Amino acid sequence: MISRTASLVAVMVALLPASAVFAADRATPEQAKSLVSDAVAYLKAKGPYDAVKAFQDPKGSFRRGELYVFVFDTNGRYIASGANPRLAGSDAADLKDAEGKPIVQAMIAETKDKPTAVIDYVWLNRQSNKVEHKHSYVTRDGNYIVGAGTYDE
């Protein structure tokens, strides 16, 4: 027999908005930075061919909750996308966020003179299926820009 308190807790959890459930699973900026660092090290050690396969593996170590790795070359071409592997090879130089901000151009420009940057934009969170503010941590390594991002709560 379920106690009255347990029943009340179960009802309260059921009534929580989906955003409250997702908030507990939100990635932190430190986790995103760590993922990018791991991805850059892997890219250097294994080369682009093996790195792309690893970054795009939906069950691999480069998918961590809502975090995934994306890679562009310095011309704005998708090299890898952990969120959507079909994007690899496509031209994203003119890709804009939901508010019209040219995000790939921002990543290229912000990492031109310094190796790391944080790019803020509005993007679809695939876990919540909502357009949210995103902060991508990007690192330029040679001709590659490697990134991962977190969403606001």
Automatic annotation (TrEMBL):
Domain Single Cache: 21-105
Membrane topology: Multi-pass membrane protein
Record-linked InterPro entries: sCache_2
Keyword annotations of the record: Cell membrane, Membrane, Signal, Transmembrane, Transmembrane helix
Entry keyword annotation includes Signal: yes
GO cellular component terms, A-Z: plasma membrane
UniProt cross-references to SMART domains, sorted A to Z: Cache_2 (SM01049)
Signal sequence annotation: 1-23
Domain of life, per lineage: Bacteria
Subcellular location: Cell membrane
Descriptive protein name: Single Cache domain-containing protein
Native source organism of the sequence: Azospirillum thiophilum
